[in-house]
Each structure stands twice: as structure tokens, then as C-alpha cells.
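Example 3.2
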Amino acid sequence: MTAQYDLHLHSLWSYDACSPVAYYFGLARQRKLRAIAITDHHTMDSLDDVAAAARSFPEVGFVAGTELTVTTSIGAVDMVCLGLP
């Protein structure tokens, strides 16, 4: 079965990625994904870029999100948080 979503992507706004948001939307359209989530580390500053790209790729939905690091009793854990306002 082919994946229909990619819910963990980082854009230029993350320290460990170098792709613009529109690049991911183009790949998603090419691969016939239903939706993607840009989950940059500790920020949602890409949200304006995501909304602009989404208008250019209406067949690809998006889920607002971010990746946050939380401290727990077992150490630091990275969590992908989706559906944020």
C-alpha cells in the first residue's frame, strides 16, 4: 500500500533541513499524497509559507503542526504535534 500522507517534514525554518515549503507540496502532488504536515522544530513560522503553497497546490491538503522537544523522566523526547491552530 502506498502512503497517502507525510506528516513529518522540515522546511528552511528548521536547523536540519534546507527545502522550501513549496518543494514539498510539489512532491506531494507528484506522489499523489492527500496531505502533508510541515513540522519544523520548535516553531510554526513557516505557516504563512505553507498557506501560500497550499493555494498553489489545492489537491494537497495540509495539517498545521510543529515538532517539540519535551523533557521527561527518561530524558528529552521529540514529539510531532499536529492540528495546532
